[in-house]
Amino acid sequence: MRPPCLHQDATSDFSINKPLSLTRNFSWTLVGTGLYAVCQWGMLVVLAKLCSTTMVGQFALAMAITAPMVVTAGGVAIPCRA
After folding, report:
1. Which of 19, 53, 75, 82 has its Cα between 20 and 30 A from that of 25?
2. Which of 17, 36, 23 is nearest to 75 (CA)?
3. pTM of this prediction?
């Protein structure tokens, strides 16, 4: 027995592959980039509380070297993970 929300007709207005507008794409990108920045800041704060200043400096140097590559690569590496 199918739930009442699933319809068998193919003429439904709902489409999974409907493209998003430029505004929605920009909004999702902005939210994702902001969340990434907040997480990086949070890791730095936790590291500063738990570790020595040398380790925090090493982490900051590693982020300064790798972050531009990660941001530039964007979603290119995501299909390769699976």
Report:
1. 82
2. 36
3. 0.58
